[in-house]
# Entry
Amino acid sequence: MKFCVDCDRGITGDHVTVARGDSMSGARPDVWAHPPCDPDCRPADPAKAALRRAFHPPSARP
# Structure
């Protein structure tokens, strides 16, 4: 199962790859997050949500 780096909850649907692990052994797996504006993503830390919105301005949101 994939877990969201923003809210630490499981991702059951679509996801965004935040960072690639680039490890052939799998020691450093990819890092995933819920897509922007997904209602399932509710970070406990408001700073994480604000940072996520900064990288996805309203005009770029689906």
User: Anything to note?
Assistant: The mean pLDDT is 76. Residues 43 and 49 are 6 Å apart (CA to CA).
